[in-house]
Sequence to fold (140 residues):
Amino acid sequence: MSYELCFGRDLERRALLTGWVRSGLWLVCQRCLGEVRIDVDASLALVLLKTEASASDLQPELESLVVGDQPLRVLDLIEDELLLAIPAIPRHDDGQCQTLPGVVREESAGSVEAEATAAAERPNPFAVLGALKDQGQGDA
Ligand SMILES: [Zn+2]
Fold:
């Protein structure tokens, strides 16, 4: 993970935290359930406020973070930003999914059809029984 944070003041002379954070995260692909590495890139522009009340007069492009009198936990903040930047449905790029046995994939309609054809070619066990029965009757 790499990040860069810059502390400054906004136009209203409030504490302003800007920067970016980048990290590669291992997530579960929602298509094949395999592991997928997602590169997350989040940028920060936060006004640090002592109280919730003063959040109302912020410039709309700025997010606010109420820190109160607590020391700012930068790593928690970075973690939150990374979590927010994770895609809602992490998955491999098209064609990169792993094929896992037992996992029914959306695009498996073709193979289901092939399986049905294979079943039709197999001798029907009842037909075999029927043939034996006919044979027995012939001998009697
Ligand atoms: Zn996948």
Q: What stands out?
A: The two ends are 84 Å apart (CA to CA).
